[in-house]
Structures are given as C-alpha cells and as structure tokens.
Write a structure and sequence with these properties.
The chain is mostly helical and 360 residues long. Helices cover 63% and strands 5% of the residues. Strand 1 and strand 2 form a beta hairpin. Helix 2 packs across helix 4, helix 2 runs parallel beside helix 12 and helix 5 packs across helix 8. The longest helix has 40 residues. It binds adenosine-5'-triphosphate and magnesium ion.
C-alpha cells in the first residue's frame, strides 16, 4: 500500500535499515565523529569533580531539549528551581528539571547494569511528563505542519503493533551487529520517532535515548553532550530529514545529518568543558591569593557544582559549620566570585562567570 501521510504508517519497516547504507561518506563521518567523542571523553576526565559536569551540562541540555517543545525557561529561573526543588517555582523550569531527572535516572539505570529496554523508555517518558506513560493504542495522533494545517506524518496505530516495533528496535540496539554504533544510534532515533510510541514526549524521550545509547556503547562516560542544541539550531532540517526517510527512503541524508550533529556537538561540548576547567583554575588562583584564610579546592569546586550556592550546601559538603560557611560565601561575594541575593528567608549566591559560560 502506498504511503499516505494522513494514514497510520502501519507498514513502517523493521530495523535494520536496508543493506548498503554504510556508504564511504557515512563511514568517513563515523570516524571523525568518534574522534570528536574520544576528545570529549578525555576533556571530561580532566575536570576534578565530575559532579560539576553531571549537574551543569545535563541541566543545559535539558533546557535546550525542552525548548524544541516550546517549553522556554530562563537560565535563572532554571537554576533557582534547581536549588529549590520543593519550593514553588516556575512551571516551565520544573518541566525542564524533570527532563534532567529522566536523563539522570536513565544514566543510573545503565550504571546499575541495565540496558536500553521498553521499560526504560516508559520510565523516561513518565518522568518527563510526570504522569504514567502508556504505549499508544487507538488514540488518533498525527504530526502536523501547524502553519500549513497539513498532515506531515501519522505513526503506526495499535498497542500490539507498537510493542512489536519497539521490541525490534531494542533488539537492534542491543544485539551484536556489524553496523557502526553511531549508524545504529541514528537509525534507531529515526525509528523511535517514526514509531512515536507515546501520545506526547516522544521527541524528548528519543533525545535522551541518544545520549544513553552513547553511554551504553561506552562512547561517552557521563551524560554530557549537547546534542539537542544542534537539533534546535537545525530544526527544519531535522524535520525534513526524518520525513525524507519515510517518504523517499533517504537514509543517507539522515545518517549524514545525525553524524554531523554528533561530531559538531561533541567538539562544541569539549570546548565548553575546557572553558569550565580554565574558569575553575583561574577562580582557585584568585581565592588562594585573595582569601588564603578560607581557600580550599573543595570550596572552589562547590561553587561550580551548582551555579547557585547556599550556606547549607557548604555545611553539607563538610567544608565548614554554619557561621563560618556564611562568612565564606560573603567573602567570595566581596571579591566578586559570587553574587548574593535574598530568596525568601535565605541567601542564595550565584556564580555569574559560570552562568555566563553555560548560557552561550
Ligand atoms: N515526519 C516525522 N516523522 C517522524 N517523527 C517526526 C516527524 N516530525 C517530527 N517528528 C518527531 O516528533 C517529535 C515531537 O513529538 P512529541 O510532541 O511527542 O515529542 P515532545 O518531546 O513532546 O516534543 P518535541 O520533540 O517538540 O520537544 C519531534 O521531536 C520529532 O522527533
Ligand atoms: Mg509534544
């Protein structure tokens, strides 16, 4: 039956993609993308406290990924929500934090030895949406070009069919294969979005799976890669490339698009990590010179683990008791490393240089 974009695509082919998709151009791109990932792994290892990367970068990735769904939050609202999890904060910021929580849960599941599975997908999507996630069944659903009021794509319908397609996808990701893992990642991302297993949250769940798969394949050690940044910046191409696979079987264009994204983002993230490291070193130098009485590497690292710091964090980190902790933060403010502001009854100190770095 011919493909129609307003009819459920129940004939979505199973993976693997047709033979011959690993052309010379694709393989060349895999090599350079893997080199870029290796540099990123290396840069990450050189940061003294991994918590700095695991907190800050996934939070930015969460913000960017959520922006695709038009959940826009400011940097500030976001970090404020991050230090004040239970307080009532901006709903968009809370939604972005849920994305980070999902990414972290997925990462921890892999560390605990799990592999990508349908249950993990359900868990990610439920966490993002803060509700139960069920696989779609008969709900009418279609991807539309809202401006043109035209159907773009209608995913397959029926829970049993969706389960079968997902089982095939999971097997494709987890079973030994001659395909390069980056080709598998790209093919799986198309397939996941084409299956569109949930009523909502498919884009975000799929983007988290990309990062998790790199970790599962040991191409990345911690969940730091701003892949969503590339997808936002090239959103039109992203949608067009997905469509071209469905409508023209254009795997080549899709694979090259994704590989280019992995490579660019890996290089870009490496640059960010190096800049964070240089900033930590310069800050440590300054605090040691100007505040020798309170300097410790732990104190400096702490104001990088979260771009917002509170007295309680210093106490919890075992660096000082309450009174001394409060004085330390005020001293850091005096020399311009931090900026304090009152939030409710408490003082919160932002690290402006780090925030600036993360926001660009
Ligand atoms: N033609 C297409 N074929 C298959 N999948 C598509 C197509 N166009 C878009 N998509 C996918 O659908 C996703 C949107 O689906 P959904 O609204 O369920 O996800 P979301 O996480 O809520 O949103 P978003 O991805 O916009 O943040 C897009 O991110 C993209 O991955
Ligand atoms: Mg949506």
């Amino acid at each position: 039956m011919a493909y129609r974009n307003n009819q459920p695509y129940n004939e979505l082919p199973l993976l693997p993609p047709p033979d011959g998709i690993e052309t010379a151009a694709v393989l060349r791109r895999c090599i350079t993308a893997r080199e870029a990932l290796a540099e990123l792994r290396w840069a990450g290892k050189l940061v003294p406290n991994q918590a700095i990367l695991i907190n800050a970068i996934p939070l930015q990735e969460a913000r960017l990924s959520s922006e695709i769904e038009n959940i826009v939050t400011t940097q500030d609202a976001l970090y404020r929500a991050a230090v004040d999890a239970e307080g009532q904060s901006d709903p968009a910021a809370r939604e972005v934090l849920r994305y980070r929580t999902a990414l972290r849960r997925g990462y921890e599941a892999l560390l605990a030895g799990q592999r990508i599975s349908i249950d993990l997908m359900l868990d990610l999507c439920a966490t993002i949406r803060a509700s139960d996630a069920n696989l779609r069944d008969q709900e009418p659903i279609l991807i539309e070009d809202v401006a043109a009021r035209a159907a773009i794509y209608t995913p397959p319908r029926g829970r049993a069919r969706i389960v079968g397609l997902l089982q095939n996808l999971v097997a494709f990701l987890n079973e030994a294969s001659a395909l390069d893992p980056l080709v598998r990642l790209a093919a799986a991302h198309y397939q996941f979005e084409a299956i569109h297993p949930f009523v909502d949250g498919n884009g975000r769940t799929g983007r988290i799976l990309n990062v998790l798969y790199l970790i599962q394949e040991r191409l990345l050690e911690i969940p730091v890669l701003y892949l969503s940044r590339y997808i936002i910046q090239t959103k039109q191409a992203y949608y067009r490339r997905l469509r071209a696979v469905t409508e023209q079987g254009d795997w080549q264009g899709w694979l090259l698009y994704m590989l280019e994204g992995i490579e660019q983002t890996a290089r870009w993230t490496t640059g960010r990590i190096e800049a964070i490291r240089a900033l930590i070193d310069a800050t440590a130098e300054r605090v040691r010179a100007e505040l020798p009485g309170i300097y410790s590497p732990e104190l400096v690292e702490l104001v990088f683990v979260q771009p917002y710091c509170k007295i309680g964090f210093v106490v919890e980190a075992g660096i000082a008791q309450r009174n001394a902790a409060s004085r330390y933060l005020r001293e850091l403010e005096r020399i311009g490393v931090l900026q304090g502001e009152r939030v409710g009854r408490e003082m919160v100190y932002r690290n402006p240089a780090l925030l600036e770095l993360l926001s660009t």
